[in-house]
Amino acid sequence: KMDDADDDIPQLSSHTLAALQEFYLEQQQREGMKTSQGFNQYSIGSIEEDWQLSQFWYSDETASSLAKEAVVAAGSGGRIACISAPSVYQKLKERDGKDFAVCILEYDRRFSVYGEEFIFYDYHHPLNLPENLLPHSFDIVIADPPYLSEECLQKTAETIKYLTKGKILLCTGAVMEEQAAKHLGVKICKFIPKHSRNLANEFRCYVNYASGLD
Question: What one-character-per-residue DSSP string does 89-134 give?
């Protein structure tokens, strides 16, 4: 009989159901607030940091400065690649620039909400990239390797050198200065990048061209 089949369907208790409904209501209210406040999907913090993935977003001022530098360095109609630097990508998108193209290479698939500009990237496989990412096709590559280790920097450097026409903007710890010079030929800048949450490690920017960050 059909009635017997219905008996096998697990039923939620009234308490659980009420809690679930409350959760969904709060979620809808949060989404509604985002819409009413003119929520920008590209604003820093629209996707929250995941510390397990060693994610620490730049402060608004730092992300703006790096985005501005990238646009100037790329030049008119330039192409910019952001490797593990979603805050800079978000700031570039906020600029609503029609004079440059940008993509984001990122391990965290939450950033796939950015559509075709999102490219899944795992630094353990530095050249495992889509066919349409042609070698030396970006005017500048901005990278912020997720870990302060030579292995991580060395593998990310392979990706950077594959993608860039020449210009490199690297953000990483001050302790990586020697390795950064060794693997990418970059030098430390005067500009001091800041994060929205203070990090224990001193952080610096490195470039291999005459930049506006000095």
Answer: HHHHHHTT-SSEEEEEEES-GGGGGGGGGEEE--TTSTT---TTS-
